[in-house]
Amino acid sequence: MGNESMMALSEVLNEKFDELVGNCMRSGAIDLNLYQEYDVKRGLRDSNGKGVLTGLTEISDVNGFRVVNGVKEPADGQLYYQGYDVKSVVGSGLKKRFAFEEATYLLLFGSLPTKEQLKTFVEILSSLQELSGQFVRDVIMKAPSANLMNGLQKSVLTLYSYDSNPDDISVANVLRQSLQLVAKLPLIAVYNYHAYRHFHFFDSLVIKPAKPEYSTAENILHMLRPDGQFTELEARVLDAALVLHAEHGGGNNSTFTNHVVTSSGTDTYSAVAASIASLKGPRHGGANLKVQQMIRDLHEHCGKTPDEEAVRAYLQKILRGEAFDGSGLIYGMGHAVYTLSDPREVVLKDFAGKLAKAKGMEEEFALYNTVEKVAADLLMSRSHVVKPVCANVDFYSGLTYTMLGIPEELFTPLFAISRISGWSAHRLEELVNKGKIIRPAYKYVGHHREYPNNEQE
């Protein structure tokens, strides 16, 4: 039996299966009016789209409003890691190294490291970067997935079998496991990409070990590129992107998933695999891919260098559901919390501009700028929009990764490489505070029925 036939139904059973699908659709449909009747917060959000308060955290703070004389007003977005403005954590200089490692230390331990503490922390992470030949051969190289997030999940779950003490959820052991994952996930992601390209497209297979003297960003570029070469600017831009994606409050879907799963008392590898599963979803981690595809579609319909009016006409078609994927969404625009600006987008856009100049891609960068401006204007003019609309970090992250030569298959895994720091910090916070198992309620709105008495003897 082949792989495809192993997963397939016969033609006759396929018809029967279609009946089951119809039954499922009928059975699962709930009257939407009941959500209002029982005051159910769909998506754990109130009527204004604000997240329902489900916990407390000191790890990060996300702000999109300010209060003036008791009135809530839109404001430039702010993101704080353990009380520090993320813009300061990233820094503006082009020569800063190990910003991501510094941010990881800050998120995990609540304070900025001294030079000596950072040096020691980097040494610890570097010592944990190794993946055995057996692991690479037996886990990463076998049945590589076209979606690398599945490869990440498989690899993370399998690390459980390589851990001598996987189920111990003491803070000390979970911290050890967390540092292992922070160190190993970049290798796992890049090696999964190389394996996928080799076995699916017959590309040359080049697996390079990480260099202990390199930062996480430098090692990603080193391991990904055949010649292992990169510029100081390239490494700095990727380092900044990693910092900006490292954490975003306890309420985002993948981090909340981590809290929920951690509260059950499960092991670290299962908790992180669950977070990766959440991040894989296109509503969460895959938005920058949609932005890239949207811009490509814009080029196809409006040319290489469309003017502002052509961009406006195209985006209006998108909003009417007549262009791109028919969803009516302009990807990379809008955020649940931020109003006037997303601080991550502001920082990344600045770095992307510098990179575009160095790469000779200023025209493409200018197009993104135009799309951002026109899209905000169109969305703001729509009658049902009740707060300002800004571009979010996903709008420029795909362009940034493309200019760095990072393939689209690695866009979402890069997000996971960054966010493992935040997930780990939140998992440890949940364990330190010994919270109860997270168990929200669902209101039953079905009907009780008598089971028919038609048993056959």
Quick summary of this structure?
The chain is mainly alpha-helical. Helix content is 55%, strand content 5%.
Shape: globular
Head-to-tail CA distance between termini: 38 Å
Which spans have pLDDT < 50 for at least 5 consecutive residues?
Answer: none
Main sheet: which strands, in order across?
1-2-3
SSE succession: HHHEEEHHHHHHHHHHHHHHHH
Radius of gyration: 24 Å
Number of strands: 3
What share of residues are in beta strands? under 5%
- Structural class, please? mainly alpha
Mean pLDDT rating:
94
Largest sheet: 3 strands, antiparallel
Count of helical stretches: 19
Helix content: 55-70%
Give short descriptive properties of this protein:
457 residues, three-stranded antiparallel β-sheet, mainly alpha
Any overview of this molecule?
This protein has 19 helices and 3 strands. The chain has 457 residues and is mainly α. Strands 1-2-3 form a 3-stranded antiparallel sheet. α16 (343-359) packs parallel to α18.
Write the layout of secondary structure elements.
Layout (H helix, E strand, L loop, with lengths): L2 H4 L4 H18 L4 H5 L22 E9 L2 E11 L2 E2 H5 L8 H11 L5 H13 L5 H8 L7 H15 L8 H31 L14 H9 L7 H13 L8 H11 L4 H13 L6 H16 L5 H12 L23 H17 L2 H20 L12 H10 L7 H22 L25
Helix pairs in contact: 5-11, 5-19, 6-9, 8-9, 8-13, 9-10, 9-19, 10-11, 11-16, 11-19, 12-13, 12-19, 13-19, 14-18, 15-17, 16-18
